[in-house]
Specification:
Layout lengths: L19 H8 L4 H6 L16 E5 L25 H14 L7 E6 L6 H12 L5 E6 L18 E5 L2 E2 L3 H8 L5 E5 L2 E2 L3 E4 L5 E5 L2 E2 L4 E5 L5 E6 L9 E4 L7 E6 L19 E5 L3 H5 L14 E5 L8 H8 L6 E5 L5 H4 L7 H7 L13 E5 L5 H12 L7 E6 L2 E5 L1
Parallel strand pairs: 1-2, 2-3, 3-4, 4-6, 5-7, 6-9, 7-10, 8-11, 9-12, 11-13, 12-14, 14-15, 15-16, 16-17, 17-18, 18-19
Antiparallel strand pairs: 19-20
């Protein structure tokens, strides 16, 4: 028998011998419910969850009779599958007995209102009062973001919101009460009015499928941005009438997506993206809309990688030609499932290559001396010959570029 006061050698609890800070770091990988359950491990663990610096509350752990694990983006949860009483009791007790004055991270995932959305808004408000550095809230029930003023946002450097209702004061709070915010992500959020995102500290910004109660403009003024991801839904009575960006001289990567629509959305964004090194443009109307109302096509001195995904190139490649002629440092070009000029579509597989080249004599000659690789990805089986015919005509001055045409596992290459 082991001496009194000592653990048997074979049953040593080395994990419990760690300092509280290390154990809290381990707990940061657990959800709040999992962290609370560690109290049964030993007396040493009974109250450790009360002082951990990360709270991750996920209602999917309270599903009835099924596993809760689903991807974060799954927004199809059914509130009838949630044990609402257990969830409310757990969260109320968690926030009551949790004693850490400040949080490193507050994460909340909720999809059902449990008959009273006030409970949910109260939980979010109490979590944000703990001055977290990171706030991530995912909702499908229109939860409201509480006021970020005072000390509650003084440490906030990452704010990720999904499905949140943002009142008229939100953009003002970003500008005046978030002095160290550098990562903002807004997905499927709803603005009460005009959205003017102004921040001199933001480095990463994602705005995806957000809407507004009143037809208005989305304005972004963030000169320190290095990453921009902007997805704009086709205009309707709940969407932006215009999008305006200020110049972003530190921009490294930008992804702009305008979803398929016959309507035109005046954006005038191209000149604001001229410093991006990696530029991705997606959507049938994106290219035309980005340049509406603009004069001279801007020069993209920094762009090295350009991806056009599902874009309309049926204007005899005028827009594509403008890009290539005004991107002197471009090294890689990818055209993915783009709409080709009608002249190339009229040529059947096995068509007259010489005739096609003659038809393209009037198209602009693209001058892009540093372009090393061009990738063209397609879907239709008969597009290969059309693409070759097109390339022979309009890519006359790109002899230094390797042109790769892909479909599934097959690959065609032109050196």
């Amino acid at each position: 028998m082991a001496p009194s006061g000592k653990r048997p050698v074979g049953n040593a609890d080395r994990l419990s011998d760690l300092h509280d800070g290390l154990i809290h770091s381990i707990m940061s990988f657990l959800t709040a419910r999992e962290a609370v359950q560690t109290c049964v491990l030993s007396r040493r663990w009974e109250d450790l969850w009360c002082s951990m610096s990360c709270l991750d509350i996920d209602e999917r752990q309270f599903r009835i009779g099924s596993a809760y694990y689903k991807i974060w983006e799954d927004m199809s949860e059914d509130e009838d599958d949630i044990d609402s009483a257990s969830l409310e009791e757990f969260v109320n007790n968690l926030l009551m007995f949790h004693s850490a004055p400040r949080l490193d991270r507050f994460r909340f995932h909720v999809a059902s209102s449990h008959g009273n959305i006030k409970f949910v808004n109260s939980w979010i408000r109490r979590g944000i009062k703990r001055c977290p550095k990171v706030v991530e809230i995912h909702s499908t029930i229109g939860c409201k973001l509480p006021h970020l003023g005072g000390s509650s946002s003084s440490r906030l450097n990452r704010l990720h919101l999904t499905g949140i209702a943002l009142d008229i004061t939100f953009t003002h709070q970003l500008r005046s009460t978030c002095p160290v915010l550098d990562d903002l992500e807004l997905k499927w959020c709803r603005f009460h009015d005009d959205a003017e995102i102004v921040s001199f500290t933001l480095k990463r910004l994602t705005v995806e499928d957000c809407t507004t109660d009143n037809p208005s403009a989305l304005t972004i003024k963030a000169p320190s941005l290095t990453y921009l991801h902007l997805v704009i839904t086709a205009p309707d009575h709940n969407n932006w009438q215009a999008v305006v960006l200020d110049l972003m001289p530190r921009l490294n990567k930008a992804t702009i997506c305008l979803k398929a629509s016959t309507a035109m959305l005046p954006c005038k964004l191209l000149s604001s993206l001229m410093f991006a090194e990696d530029l991705q443009l997606t959507g049938l109307r994106t290219l035309a809309n980005l340049h509406i109302g603009s004069g001279t096509f801007p020069v993209f001195y920094s762009v090295r990688i350009l991806l056009l995904d599902k874009c309309d190139l049926s204007d005899s490649c005028d827009i594509l030609g403008n890009f290539l002629n005004n991107a002197p440092c471009l090294e890689k070009l990818t055209l993915q499932q783009c709409k080709l000029p009608e002249s190339s579509k009229k040529n059947k597989a096995g068509g007259n290559v010489e005739r096609t080249s003659l038809q393209c004599q009037d198209t602009p000659s693209f001058q892009c001396l540093r372009l090393k690789r061009t990738e063209i990805k397609y879907n239709e089986d008969d597009d290969v010959q059309k693409l070759f015919d097109l390339l022979l005509g309009v890519w006359r001055n790109l002899q230094k570029s390797t042109i790769v045409i892909k479909k599934g596992s097959r690959r065609y290459s032109m050196m």
